[in-house]
Amino acid sequence: MFKKIETIIEKIEEWVVSLSVIIMAILMVVSVFMRTVLNNSLTFSEEIGQLLLIIVSFFGIGYCVRRNRHVNMSMVFDAANKKGKKVMMFIVSIVSAALMILLFVLSIQYIMSVAKLGRTSPALRIPMSWFYISLPIGFIIAAVEYIRTLVANLKHKDKVYISSEVSLEETPIEESTMTNEKTEIKEA
After folding, report:
1. Is 9 part of any domain?
2. Residues of the domain holding 145
């Protein structure tokens, strides 16, 4: 049951982010065409672009955490032994999950305060609180992913999970492909 919910959430994330990027690209091309060729700009394109950028940024947090695709500094982590890496992942997972939960709460408070002010976007007259609805969604998904990483590290004593789907023992696809190509070259 949990796996099915997880798959549905992941598919929704992928669709929302992909669709937002595609719409943003189309909107930019149309906006440039309108401005340069027809001498008439779209008044709403900047607002929609801003909204889509916010959606991509915050919906992408959970995806990046799940796949370990976020920016990280790993000099100390790489130098540690397996037990040290495991301890660091416990600490990183707990602190990051707590931070994401805090940001979730703060983002909801912020959205509520923006909604109380009744602010709307200048061109489309959309309530500004709608612009920020992806913030708490992204933060709570990221918190769940960090908790899943913590649980994976607790369940599997022999592996170090750097995300809920990636362990240190797994060889990335790019490396294994390069290794296979080198082997084929040596054999030839």
Report:
1. yes
2. 2-171
Distance CA 15, CA 181 (A): 34
List Cβ neighbours of 160 (8 Å cut-off, separation of 6 or more): 82, 85, 86, 89, 153, 167, 168, 169
**Res. 171 pLDDT band, cuts 50 70 90:** very low
As a whole number of angstroms, the distance between CA 8 and CA 2 comes to 10
- Least Cα distance to 138 among 93, 108, 94, 95 occurs for 108
Predicted TM-score (pTM) of the model is: 0.79
Note the pLDDT of residue 18: 92
Q: Report the distance separating Cα 63 and Cα 137, nearest Å.
A: 12
DSSP one-letter string for 119-144: -B-TTT--BHHHHTTHHHHHHHHHHH
